[in-house]
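Could someone model adenosine monophosphate with this protein?
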Amino acid sequence: MAQKRMVLLGAPGVGKGTQAKKLQEVFNLAHISTGDMLRDAVRQGTDSGIKAKEYMEKGELVPDDLIIDLVDERLGKDDCQEGFILDGFPRTVIQAEKLDMLLRKRGIGLDDVVTIDVPNEAIILRLSKRRVCDTCGYVLESDEANPGDPCPKCGEGTVIRRKDDGPESVRRRLEVYDEKTRSLIQYYDGRRLLKTVDGTGSPATIFDRLVGTLGLA
Ligand code: AMP
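Reply:
Sure, complex below.
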C-alpha cells in the first residue's frame, strides 16, 4: 500500500475534503482535516472549540498556536504512521514552518504538496450549493437531500448549509486564501514539492488526475 505524507492545498470549495476522503478509502492514508477537527471541537464545546467558533463563522483563520497543537497531537496517532493527507493545514507560512518542525521531530518529511486549481466563479457557485451533515460532516451531492432532511449517510444528523458557506463568509474566505494561503504555493514550489491538479470536472475525473499526478496509479 502507498505510503505518502502529503499536503492538499487549494481555496475553500475546490474539493480538497472530497478528494482526501477518497484517497483515504483507496490508499489507507489518514485524512487530517483541520476544518473537521475544529468543527468537532465546536460541537463538543471544548476550550479550543469555544475559542475557534467566532473566527470560523466569519471566515477568518483561527490563531496559529491553537491549530498547531491540534495537528501535533493528531500526527502522533497510530493511523498516521503509514502516511497522511493534510487538508486545510498549513494555511500560512508560519504554519508551514511549524509543520516542518513537527515532522522533523518525528524524523519524517513531506513527499508531495498538491494544489487543486478551480476558478473563483466556479468555487462560489459550488459553495452556494454545498450541503453537509451537521453530525458526521458528510458532503452531499446536490440532489441527494435538502436542508432539514436526515443525513443519507449516517441517518443521525441533519442536512444543513455550513454557516461559513453563506455569501459574506465565502467572500472573506476567498480573500483570506489570497492574502495568507496563496504564498504557500511559492513556499512549497521553492522546495520542489509542489504539483498542480486541474480541479474542474466531476469528483471522479479529478481523483483520476490526482492519482496520476501523485504516481499512485
Ligand atoms: P475548512 O473546512 O478547511 O474550510 O475550514 C473551516 C474554517 O476552519 C476556516 O475558515 C478557518 O476558520 C478554520 N481553519 C481550518 N483550518 C485552519 C488552519 N490551518 N488555520 C487556521 N484556521 C483554520
